[in-house]
Amino acid sequence: MEKSRKANVVFIHPDLGIGGAERLVLDVAVALSKEHKNVSFVTNHFNRNHAFQELRDNNFPVSVIGDWLPRSICGICQALCAYFRMVFLALIQVLFVKVKPDVYFVDQIPIAVPFIKWAGGKVIYYCHHPDLLASPLGGSLKRIYRLPINWLELKGTSMADVILVNSKYTASVFHKTFPEITQSIEILYPTIASSYLDMIQNMKPKSIKTLIPELEPLHDPFIFLSINRFHPAKKLELAIEALKMLQNKLSSKDWDRVHLIMAGGFDPHSTTNATYFSKLVKLSESKELSGKITFLKSPSDDLKADLLLACRCLIYTPVNEHFGIVPLEAMTAAKPVIACNSGGPCETIVDDVTGYLCEPTPASFSEGLFKILNNQDLLKMGVLGRERLEQCFSYNMFCTKVNKVVDTVVYGVQSPEPSLPEKIVEEKEDANLTHDSTVKMDKELTNLFESPCSTTYLSTADSSTDICDSDVSNQEETVPILNDHVEVNEESSF
């Protein structure tokens, strides 16, 4: 294909809702459109009222195929139905759509890949996390049920022209889960959308009492913020239990200042969301924390940004999160992050520099909260986090990598390699940044990119483009999820 002609890229995604996977594919679409590529979406389900702004604004064409097909059979077999819906979509796409794209971008359900390849198409497959790990092994019937689904995932994934993953952690899990797949995989870190970056940079911080009127009586409130879907996989009860343990570490005066805001996506049609939300509320009541916790369902992007600017620290509780976009959102607002010492946060957060990495226990998280409360350099910690975001996970780096991958598949050539940003280390003078040690800011920035984790990583084909060489920690790769539904593996707060 001549590079002078615009490349046509079709995204195949099972459900264009509001989550981390949807945010990722939209960011890829925006990055491609900025380089004048034609982008469109094909999906099994799309509700314009429950979608990201780019889709609500009709920025990209969306075709819905197979929404009438069942999502489950008597409440079970969600994964099987999801695969069947995707097979139907793929068949319609390759048999009845006359104008074929130059490349398909597929994620979450790889069963579409073989049909596209058999029709002569090219495919980029983005693996948020191996789906076969999303379901407990169960008994004999469950194993038999999952056997063909797992085989189809393996075969579909292996047939892609390019395989992308969202982190070094996911890459290591991928290799151990699919040892039969020997082709190289590349890392495409998720990023923060340029529109969100602009919004954060242009917003004037608001008082937390303006955002949450019920906090008006508090004097100098110290706000911890949790942003995540109200879903059991996010382990939000960890924040509540840690907050209760923190109470025993503080004087009554300091405790009176502390407040936790738990904000996140909530689908009123989801039984899982409703049940888990109710469980969290009851837990806060049983811990006598009702007055210490504010729950916010599906806050707007504006409110979420306001909360990030107004809080002192983000609490991120998922265990073995595949990547985790929310810590990057906090780093955009120059806020430190407390997170589990497993999964993607080991690559985004530098322990004791841009936040704290904790064991997934209430005791460890409460210690992290206590350190934040007593840290005199929170502002500096937040600034270092923003520096790390700009150096390792910037939107420009994301756009360059996306277009390079697509150009390689479509044209057989790569886009020009970006020059690595020079790491400018300066002494930052700020009257508000008091530091009781003699360690200079330039030394901390130099240490910023040292590995927060300790073990090695299975190398990828494009490791040379990673300027942040933080290794993957020695973690348990099997991620416990509570059902077998082929679901968004990497969802953010919405």
TrEMBL record:
Query: What chemistry does it catalyse, as a reaction equation?
Result: an alpha-D-Man-(1->3)-beta-D-Man-(1->4)-beta-D-GlcNAc-(1->4)-alpha-D-GlcNAc-diphospho-di-trans,poly-cis-dolichol + GDP-alpha-D-mannose = an alpha-D-Man-(1->3)-[alpha-D-Man-(1->6)]-beta-D-Man-(1->4)-beta-D-GlcNAc-(1->4)-alpha-D-GlcNAc-diphospho-di-trans,poly-cis-dolichol + GDP + H(+); a beta-D-Man-(1->4)-beta-D-GlcNAc-(1->4)-alpha-D-GlcNAc-diphospho-di-trans,poly-cis-dolichol + GDP-alpha-D-mannose = an alpha-D-Man-(1->3)-beta-D-Man-(1->4)-beta-D-GlcNAc-(1->4)-alpha-D-GlcNAc-diphospho-di-trans,poly-cis-dolichol + GDP + H(+)
Molecular function in Gene Ontology: GDP-Man:Man(1)GlcNAc(2)-PP-Dol alpha-1,3-mannosyltransferase activity; GDP-Man:Man(2)GlcNAc(2)-PP-Dol alpha-1,6-mannosyltransferase activity
- Cite the SUPFAM superfamilies for this sequence: UDP-Glycosyltransferase/glycogen phosphorylase (SSF53756)
Task: Identify the enzyme class.
Answer: transferase
Topology relative to the membrane:
Single-pass membrane protein
- Keyword terms of this UniProt record: Endoplasmic reticulum, Glycosyltransferase, Membrane, Transferase, Transmembrane, Transmembrane helix
Domain Glycosyl transferase family residue range list: 214-379
Q: Which InterPro entries match?
A: ALG2 (IPR027054), Glyco_trans_1 (IPR001296), Glyco_trans_4-like_N (IPR028098)
* Domain named Glycosyltransferase subfamily 4-like N-terminal: residues: 18-190
Record has Membrane as a keyword: yes
The EC number on file is 2.4.1.132, 2.4.1.257
The record ties this protein, via Gene3D superfamilies, to: Glycogen Phosphorylase B
Q: In which pathway does it act?
A: Protein modification; protein glycosylation
Q: Where in the cell is it found?
A: Endoplasmic reticulum membrane
The highest taxon in the source lineage is Eukaryota
Q: Name one GO cellular component term.
A: endoplasmic reticulum membrane
The reply on keyword Membrane is yes
Q: What does this protein do?
A: Mannosylates Man(2)GlcNAc(2)-dolichol diphosphate and Man(1)GlcNAc(2)-dolichol diphosphate to form Man(3)GlcNAc(2)-dolichol diphosphate.
Protein family per UniProt: Belongs to the glycosyltransferase group 1 family.
- This one is known as Alpha-1,3/1,6-mannosyltransferase ALG2
